[in-house]
Structures are given as C-alpha cells and as structure tokens.
Predict the 3D structure of the following.
Amino acid sequence: MNMNSIVKKQLTLTLIAFVAMTGTTIAQERSGKELYDIISIKNKGMLAPRQNFTGDVWVNMVEMFEDGFNGSVVGKVTFETKAWTNWHKHSQGQILIVTEGVGYYQEKESPVQIIRTGDVVKIPKDTEYWHGASHNSTMVHTAIVPGGSTTWLKEVTYVFQ
C-alpha cells in the first residue's frame, strides 16, 4: 500500500468519524444540478402536546411534501418511562420501528403487547391503538406515517404494571 492510499484512508475515516460524532449534515448532489440538505432526527426534538400524551414525550418529525411523498411524515419519538399516547388512528396507517428501550402497544379490543428494540409494528389504516414506554424503561421509535390524517381519541385509562 503506497503513502497516498494510506493518507486517503485516514482522511476518509476522519471525515466519517467527524460526521458521526457531530451529526453534521453534508449537502449532496442530486441530478447533477440541485443541492439539498439531509435533515437530522438525532436530537430529541420538542416536547409533545399534553392533550395527546400522558407523561413526557419528545417528538422530532420531518414532514415531506415534495418529491411525491404526499405529506408523508418520518420522525423520532422518545417516550420517557411511563409515558404514552392517547388512543388514536391514522387514515393511512403507521409503521413504528423501535430503536431503544421497552414499550407497550395495544390495538382496540386486543391485549397489550410488549415491544422492544428492533421490533417493527405495522399498523393498518384506521386502526385504533396506543403505544408508549413501559413502567420500567424509556422507549424510542422511528415513526413512518405515509400521509393522510391522525385522529386523536380519548386518554388511555388503564395500563397494566
């Protein structure tokens, strides 16, 4: 291996480490003309509105109306211990990808299910459900909502311990 390839490898690894550690985004070229920014969901985001959640829930969502995504939303939701959503439903369904912790998921008229890091929950459209952190753990998930609307319903009145 010559000196130039060693230096190139070291510079590449340094750049990768810098981007990974700082969360810095780099504009990327698309179609040879346009530049666009990559949006980060690394941070917790904003505290979610109390009328739709029990406990502290942080939301960092990205709405995508351009490029044919038709109002799709992707984001990171962080539930503190014993925090969860109200009952709700999405007109186009939702996908939850649990990235940290342990939580609960329950559809109307069904038992509560435990969800853990690595679980993917595919929620059909117009299904009434709630989800959130367990009594002993925080829970973080990536949420994907393929457009449509969210209807918020009543507060969850009982969660087993």
User: Anything to note?
Assistant: The two ends are 60 Å apart (CA to CA).
